[in-house]
Amino acid sequence: MMDAQPNTMLEREYRVACKRAQERLESSYVLTACDPSAADFPQHAERWRAVWYVQTASDGLPEMLLALSVTFPDELPSVYLTIACAKRHEGMLHLDNSRLLCTFDSTAATPNAEVPGDVVLAVVERARAILADASIGEPAVDDFADEFKAYWGIEAPQEALALVRPGDRVKRVAVFEFFPAWNQTAILFADKAIAAELWIKAVQCRSKLRRSSGLYVPIGNLGRAPYPSTNREMFERLKALDPDALRHITHYLVNNEPPTWILFSIPSLTGRALGAWAHPQPKYLSGCGSDIRPTDGISGFRMGKCPPHLELNTLNGHARLVRATVTEVTSPRLIARTQGQERERAAGFVNVVGCGSVGSFVAESLVRSGLASKLRLIDPQVLRPENVQRHYCGMSDINQAKAVAIRRQLLKHFPQLECVAINENVLNVLRRSPKLLGDASLSVFALGELAVERRLNHLYQTGSLGEGAVCFVWVEPHLVGAHAVYLGHPTEGCLECLLGSDLEYVPRIIENPSQFSLREAGCQSTYMPYGGTDVQDFVSTLTRFLRGMVGSRKNVRFTWFGDLDAARNQGVAISRLYDDQVSFTSQIYPIFARQDCGVCL
After folding, report:
1. 235 vs 228, 405, 479, CA distance in Å?
2. Any idea of the CA torsion for 329, 333, 335, 337, to the nearest 10 degrees?
3. Does this model's pTM top 0.90?
């Protein structure tokens, strides 16, 4: 447990809370301190301030240990079973392979630090109730399926990731084993080898790889825990509960050399849960009595050609399966855990043209939100040191093409993203390949170059940019505000309609934005001042706006308002259009066609 304890105010409060909890618990139970050298002591000794055996009956030995972390009571106590008790309750619900008993869900239950005694008492009582339920009778198979991963993880020495969605169809899968393990991951399963290779490259894995094929099998019922751990146990379990799955597995094994990985799924209350096992290389025995010895094969069968039912159930039935816990890392599964639901995703590519401070964060936000699963980045410039403070990429990417650097960084975070980087001016791209952008569901133009944007607006109105929507995005000085012009259909009302005779955006927030431009020494060094944090605030709101516009054929303008109060206090002239507007809000407005617009009329 703790060695050198600090003497800070917080540490003193934690010590008092621990003492109060001990006194309260000792009023109901017999507590005995568990020495860190004891076999029963929980893992990660440095975590615990106190670990006690709790004797819950007047006779007999303690069944559980209560462990208080160094940050108790701001963290729930943990209950561990003794080694002897865990052995008696092997396969019990809510018990993992470290003997930790799940009492309360820490994400849903919050301990009340003001009453530490009540907290420890509630946890112990909950643990007693779970043990009592386990003694009454066996839980239903559905209960085990719902907590399958915890039970399958017992005696599972390896962790795996899967780029495979658990479905109802048997199929071959690609298997990549890492030597050494990459970030604790030993195996990667994928539908196709190329998908795994791209994923591995994107996350910059440097481990050596062993490639093979495996079989994915949906299993209808794997029964109760404890789950099979040998060839014979798995054969008998599947023979009794899912003979069809056993047929697929044995047919696969007869045509493939071991060790052979089987990726499988079983139904749970929330879908299908994944797991995996490998059949080891056979080690047969021959002879009898004291003359028993290992042999490479069985008389009458060529090496590796012994019928699987004979090998699994009889001759090599004792061989232990190699289990692996499996985490699905497909895009649909990860996105389902966010607000970016499937229906909100763009069907095709999303183009981000202009990969500066605004465009770089737009690209990242579109992917993180789940709106874009296919991304095309277009920008001719390289990242300079002065760009870094308000850019998605950092100092390690300077003098790299912005589009290429953003792609590389995005793939580290989202390795399944389909992303193309084009280090070129968008008009040059369209001049040579006018249909290159036409497959996009959405094109976001974050260029800050009005002449180019006007040209793109014209091309969109003539149908040269395809049928997808376009969105022009830019910010005002100091990010007092920012704008987006969304065009869902080439009809009346476009970017040109919002420009005055001086080519200034008419519904701007700052009356005279040009007066805020700054310049450093050297040619072409004029820039507009604003902060990177403000950009992220704007882009976050913009992304929600774009998610709501997916599939829409409306033409609208979107305005985000920054710190208007600070701007007014500093004497910035704000347009009277926004006299009543509140800071850090946004509005959507219709676009009215200008009668003298030569583009959309």
Report:
1. 9, 51, 66
2. -110
3. no
